[in-house]
Every structure is written in C-alpha cells, then in structure tokens.
Amino acid sequence: MQYITRKSDIRIRLQECLQAYDEEGLITSCDVTYKTLLSHKVKFPLLEFCGEQFYEHLLEIDHIQFCDHIQSLKTEGGNVILGIMLQKRLDHHYEESIQKATAYIADADMWYVCDIIGERVWGVSLLQTPEKTMAVIEAKTHHESHWVIRSLGAGIHYAIKKGLPKVYVKMLFDLLLTCANTTNKEIRQGIGWAAKTTAKFHPDIIRFRESELNNTQNVANWFRKKVAIGLERHQHAKGN
C-alpha cells in the first residue's frame, strides 16, 4: 500500500481508470479504480478531484452504477469519490442523489461512511438548496438507521462551518434538540458534533435556547457538554 499525496501522481493513476472505462467498460474501470486508487492511502482532496473527474468523464447513465460498485468495495476512500459524484448530481438528480446517499449510509459498517458522505451530500445540499434540504433533514431524524441520523450531524456541522445563513441554523438546532436525549453512541457523536459547531459559530442561538437546554428530562447531559465545548471554542477564537 502506498501513500499518495501529489496531484501529479494521482493524475497518472486516474488516467488509467478513465482509459479502462473508455476501452473496456464500466466494470473494468471500477476494478482498475480499486487497484490503482482505493487500495492505497490517498489524501481526501485528491480523491475529491477524482470524483469530479469521474463525474465529468463517465456517461451520465453510468454514474449510479459506478457509485454502486465503488460502494460495494467498502473502502474508506471510495466514500469520498461517490460522495462527490452524488453531490455533483444534486442539481439535476436531487431526489435520486438523496436516496442513494441514504442507502449507502444505511449500509455502513464503519462510522466514517456517515461522516464522509454526510458532509459532502447533506452539507453541500444545505448550502445550495437550504429550504428543500431542511425538509429532508427533518424527515431523516426519524430514520430507522442510526448511521443515517449520525450522518445528518456531519452535514449540519459542515454547512454551518461553511456559512449557512443563521435562519437555517436556528431551525436545525431545533431539530438537534429533538435528538438530544438519545442514548445511541453513534447518534450522539453526529448530533453532538453539530451542536458543538452551532455553539462555536452562533452562541446567541444557544443563549436563546437556554431554558430548553436546561430541561434535564428532554436534553441529556452529553448534549449540554457538547454545547459547552462549542461555547468555549467560540471564546477561545475571540482571544478571551
């Protein structure tokens, strides 16, 4: 296994994958992608670049089959590639991209699947079409898979960090509060991450919800701790 850190190196390997697609078809290209890219350690920005190139080069009709095959390989880096491809398809294939992201995350066997896809699909979707995606996020807080609920936290964290307008952050924090009493470890990780980021970037939202946060019947101590950490980080960023 090699550790690939340079774009010049990744371009050579990526070209092998694209050439295999052009000359021998989709399945062979997926096999080459595994051997040349996904069986090695590759920096995430380079894998994101690969995802963009696959999206541009592959026929649109092959996008989802390619993602399905990459997902079936169960590699960490594969999630970056398919996350970017689904993200790129949001404009013209929104519902399908949301459905596939949900299915891939629900099929997860490791926490990083939720976080990688959640940031790149839920997070970017919130930034691009916040009102439409708010409805999706709200519905998925009731999803049967704890992995899917965890992934929402990753997406919310990403969107807030990248400048999601405060009006949507307020609504999202209300949704986070509905999950604030869960005992599931994975949900706590994702929801807590988003709560911490909310407090770091928008402490005024936390002050406005202080009475709800102090309701020990509805809000568990772990949630308050995450909020407290976020507030501390906000003060530290200000130099206090």
TrEMBL record:
Phylogenetic lineage: Bacteria, Pseudomonadati, Bacteroidota, Flavobacteriia, Flavobacteriales
Superkingdom in the source lineage: Bacteria
Pfam families: DNA_alkylation
InterPro entries cross-referenced by the UniProt entry: ARM-type_fold, DNA_alkylation
Name by which UniProt lists this protein: DNA alkylation repair enzyme
